[in-house]
Amino acid sequence: MSGLPSVPIPAEMGFELWLEEHRGRLVRAFVPLDKRSSGFVDVEELADYTRLCVKTIRREIEDRNLPHHRVRGRLIIAVSDALAWLSARREV
């Protein structure tokens, strides 16, 4: 997510809102994955967050390592499942 501007949010919210621009137009605003309490992300958002390629995320889904939902052909992952998946792969 480097290179994206951050916009300060009131301190009581405890996070920054990240904005992504393409050709001078705002194309996406999002809260970093680890600051979300619930919700869903798509494969591309998870790839951006983890800095893994989309193909790797899709392979983890195909290998049934990453819980997901398929809605009208679109893959979405619960934030809680994504964080649990990442935690399970932590190496010390």
Description:
The chain is α+β, with helices and mostly antiparallel strands and 92 residues long. The protein has two domains: 31 residues, no CATH class; 56 residues, Multidrug-efflux Transporter Regulator, Chain: A, Domain 2 (Orthogonal Bundle). The protein has three helices and six strands; from the N terminus they run ββββααββα. The strands form two sheets. A three-stranded antiparallel sheet has the order 1-2-3, with no helix packed on it. Strands 4-6-5 form a three-stranded antiparallel sheet. Strand 2 and strand 3 form a beta hairpin. Helix 1 packs across helix 2. The protein is globular and about 40 Å long. About 11% of the residues have low confidence.
Structure characteristics:
alpha+beta; globular; 6 strands; 92 residues; 3-stranded antiparallel β-sheet; 29% helix; single chain; Multidrug-efflux Transporter Regulator, Chain: A, Domain 2; 2 domains
Return the average pLDDT rounded to an integer. Answer: 76
Strand content: 25-35%
Rg, alpha carbons? 14 Å
What CATH architecture of the largest domain do you see?
Orthogonal Bundle
Q: Could you list the spans in which at least 5 consecutive residues all have pLDDT below 50?
A: 8-17
Strand order, main sheet: write it out: 1-2-3
Order of helices and strands: EEEEHHEEH
Specify the overall morphology: globular
Overall number of structural domains: 2
> Which structural class is indicated by helix and strand composition?
alpha+beta
Helix content: 25-40%
CATH top level class name of the largest domain: Mainly Alpha
Q: How many runs of DSSP E, i.e. beta strands?
A: 6
**Distance between the amino and carboxyl termini:** 24 Å
Reported for the largest beta sheet, the result is:
3 strands, antiparallel
Helix count?
A: 3
CATH topology of the largest domain: Multidrug-efflux Transporter Regulator, Chain: A, Domain 2
